[in-house]
Amino acid sequence: TESRDAKRVAVLGATGSVGASAVEVIAASQGRLKAIALSAHQRFDRLIEQAKRLKPRWVIATDAAAAKKQSWRRLPKGTELLTGPEALEQTVCHKDVDTVLAAIVGTAGLQSTWAAVDAGKTVALANKEALVAAGPQIQKLARQRGATLLPVDSEHSAIYQALKCGAANEVERLVLTASGGPFRTWDADGLRQVTVDEALAHPTWDMGPKITIDSATLMNKALEIVEARWLFDLPAERLMVMIHPQSVVHSLVEFVDGSVIAQLSPPDMRLPIQYALEYPHRREALAERLDWTQRMVLEFEPPDFDRFPALELGFRAAREGGTAGVVVNAANEAAVGQFLDGELHFTEIVPACASVLESHHFSPSPTLKELLELDQWARREVENWVCA
Ligand code: NAD
Ligand code: MG
């Protein structure tokens, strides 16, 4: 039941946590949304299953070497296989692509996000790391090309919705909520002993491994502060973080008159994904609803900046702009990798990032090329930090 004027969506990172939720949203859209392209880096059996379900025009296997080893026999007739990261950039520019869901994890998603913005597309952005690394550059390009950025991150989706209640100059502050992660109540001694398995078990969200570790260190919230800074063009002084363990209030906007507007729903990424893909419309959703016949307790508390030093790093990167975001983000990606490999303690992730941020050569308005070089430099610095 594909309607002729379906919105044609390219899902980059389709096999990930966000990507798989997007596939469900598209499949349930009664033909309003059509997957025109699906990409994956590995796990191609999963990609082929998705292709059988949604019959896209293209599947993209970004790891070309791994793609050679895969049997593509079961790909549906009419679906063409493209390989290599360049295929992402070619596909997002195609005239038949209306919306690009950027759901690749980390800096690996930067160039395809950039290409989609450059092509003037509507970009549903899950890949927060792209905006952390190159926020001002992406926003400038979006203005030049007439591209629209729609947040998929649940906090930013909530803020985007709440901002509709007032004018830009009527906003006092944004309050990002954070679940606090699995170690919200742990003391400093406990935090030093955290194992990889403990850090991978998140209490309220089911996500990919990198963002799950980020949620445990609160680096995810740090990245989201920087993301909000560029997405909504507000200075760091107007951004705040509150711990809200239930993950029901997804964020809040406080206006100059003191009114606070929030968006609430059970934690389920299918809702913000659907909001971005169906925008400007609201449709019935797969996501569960709040049950207003039941007692419900919502708690809020200020975060502990001592136990979770990542937050200060996020505010600092949001204040400084320039090259601070790309360095913190790349250092964090490398440090998370080291932690998952057992080479770094949980409580060393943030100090490693802070040290690399401290020692980098700051520049206020870098080019994309300079950002990509600094990204590589920061990763090497983390390796040296670990060996030292
Ligand atoms: P994930 O690890 O589950 O999936 C990542 C996807 O990217 C996979 O499809 C993988 O094949 C692809 N990928 C990985 N490396 C790649 C590379 N080098 N080149 C091309 N493709 C590559 O990650 P996720 O949890 O779905 O997160 C995706 C993005 O969405 C991240 O930026 C994350 O911060 C953001 N996000 C996720 C959630 C969530 O609930 N999972 C919520 C908010 C924001
Ligand atoms: Mg989030």
From TrEMBL:
The organism's place on the tree of life at top rank: Bacteria
Cofactor: Mg(2+); Mn(2+)
Binding site for Mn(2+): D153, E155, E224
Pfam families registered for this protein in UniProt: DXP_redisom_C, DXP_reductoisom, DXPR_C
Classification via InterPro entries: DXP_reductoisomerase, DXP_reductoisomerase_C, DXP_reductoisomerase_N, DXPR_C, DXPR_C_sf, NAD(P)-bd_dom_sf
EC number(s) given by UniProt: 1.1.1.267
Metabolic or biological pathway, per its Swiss-Prot or TrEMBL entry: Isoprenoid biosynthesis; isopentenyl diphosphate biosynthesis via DXP pathway; isopentenyl diphosphate from 1-deoxy-D-xylulose 5-phosphate: step 1/6
Domain 1-deoxy-D-xylulose 5-phosphate reductoisomerase N-terminal stretches: 9-135
Binding site for NADPH: T15, G16, S17, V18, N127, E129, G208
Reactions catalysed, as given in the entry: 2-C-methyl-D-erythritol 4-phosphate + NADP(+) = 1-deoxy-D-xylulose 5-phosphate + NADPH + H(+)
Molecular function terms, GO-annotated: 1-deoxy-D-xylulose-5-phosphate reductoisomerase activity; manganese ion binding; NADPH binding
Residues involved in 1-deoxy-D-xylulose 5-phosphate binding: K128, S154, E155, S179, H202, S215, N220, K221, E224
Location of the DXP reductoisomerase C-terminal domain: 264-380
GO term, biological process aspect, one: isopentenyl diphosphate biosynthetic process, methylerythritol 4-phosphate pathway involved in terpenoid biosynthetic process
Span of domain 1-deoxy-D-xylulose 5-phosphate reductoisomerase C-terminal: 149-232
Keywords (A to Z) from UniProt: Isoprene biosynthesis, Magnesium, Manganese, Metal-binding, NADP, Oxidoreductase
Leading EC class: oxidoreductase
Family to which the UniProt record says this protein belongs: Belongs to the DXR family.
Free-text function comment from the UniProt entry: Catalyzes the NADPH-dependent rearrangement and reduction of 1-deoxy-D-xylulose-5-phosphate (DXP) to 2-C-methyl-D-erythritol 4-phosphate (MEP).
Family matches, as PANTHER family: 1-DEOXY-D-XYLULOSE 5-PHOSPHATE REDUCTOISOMERASE (PTHR30525), 1-DEOXY-D-XYLULOSE 5-PHOSPHATE REDUCTOISOMERASE, CHLOROPLASTIC (PTHR30525:SF0)
NCBIfam families noted in UniProt: Dxr
HAMAP family xref list: DXP_reductoisom
Name of the protein this chain belongs to: 1-deoxy-D-xylulose 5-phosphate reductoisomerase
Species of origin: Aeoliella straminimaris
Originating gene: dxr
